[in-house]
């Protein structure tokens, strides 16, 4: 793994390339995340904060030797971008970044020409307070995001596909349990009749699923309810097979 934090103009910073590499994201997506946050800072009247903590610069691609944009970020800017990365693996990476920033700050501090004892103590006290405030702010934002994930975020495309396949599997299982005596069409039409029964079962499963979780589409099921929805589908029993 590349070095997570480095010194730039006397400050401990990381950059968008490092974040993309560590969190296994496309660099273009990280740049987009940063640009969105800068835009929100401008809208909130915090443009100066954005300028101080996000520095747009360039890097040269090692293969084609072309120059591309990237951003250097302070610890505060990193916290703002990384707060939305909430997987368990991402949380581990964020802790690593926090330790790296602390170590780099200590390295910078050790290279500073000593001041008188009173000023040194005041500066260390100030840094400790600022660090605690940043941690409190980051922890609060992480809690807010976790709450949003639990109560507002719906299924992504992969999870929708999982739920849809579960419905299809259950519908086909039940359709296969229908005996030939329940089929009203002649032998040549049996295949068509089974397909009609499957389609009816799919519709009924979806309808009951929507009613059970209070949504108008399986895509609106909350992420936190996915396991419950899968269990409901796998145990679903039709009221009547026409």
Provide structural commentary.
The protein has 2 domains: 6-151, no CATH class; 157-234, no CATH class. The protein is an alpha+beta fold and 242 residues long. Helix content is 62%, strand content 9%. A 4-stranded antiparallel beta sheet has the order 1-2-4-3. It comes from Brevibacillus reuszeri. This is Antirepressor. InterPro entries: ORF6C_dom, Phage_regulatory_Rha. Residues 196-239 form the ORF6C domain.
- Apparent shape: elongated
Can you tell me the number of structural domains? Answer: 2
Structure class: alpha+beta
Kindly state the percentage of residues in helix: 55-70%
Tell me the number of strands.
4
Main pleated-sheet profile: 4 strands, antiparallel
Return Rg in Å.
Answer: 28 Å
In the predicted model, the low-confidence regions spanning at least 5 consecutive residues are 183-189
Q: How many distinct helices?
A: 9
Please list the strands of the largest sheet in the order they lie side by side.
1-2-4-3
Q: Summarize the helix and strand pattern as letters.
A: EEHHHEEHHHHHH
Mean pLDDT, nearest integer?
A: 80
How big a fraction of the residues is strand? 5-15%
**N-to-C CA distance:** 61 Å
InterPro entries: ORF6C_dom, Phage_regulatory_Rha
Protein name: Antirepressor
Pfam families: ORF6C, Phage_pRha
Domain ORF6C: 196-239
